[in-house]
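Lab notebook: predicted structure, single chain.

Context: the supervisor wants predicted structures on file for every construct in the current expression panel, including those that have not yet been purified. This is the next one on the list. No modifications to the sequence; it matches the entry in the shared construct table.
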Amino acid sequence: VQLVESGGGLVQPGGSLRLSCAASGFTFSRYHMSWYRQAPEKERELVARIISDGTGTNYPDSVKGRFTISRDNDKNTAYLQMNNLKSEDTAVYYCNARWNAVSYWGQGTQVTVSS
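Prediction complete. Output recorded below exactly as produced.
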């Protein structure tokens, strides 16, 4: 089983990034997919979730209207489009796949928002 995140990097405030999470080794279309982030000295927090068939999403207020999660079950990939990025969005972003009691994590990708 693998979840491989990509697309992180350094961006200026107000900029955009698109993260990808490529999955392998399990039935991707069965799993709900989420993106979490963890800033230094802070707890890991959920930033977006999409259900297995892609018909439902949810976001915390801190990113609602700026972040969009999506998935392509034919490509076994989940995405996180991040717009109007702020310095407080700086964190390591992790992809998570969950189905019942089974949960897989990626290794994370760094997103740094700074001028």
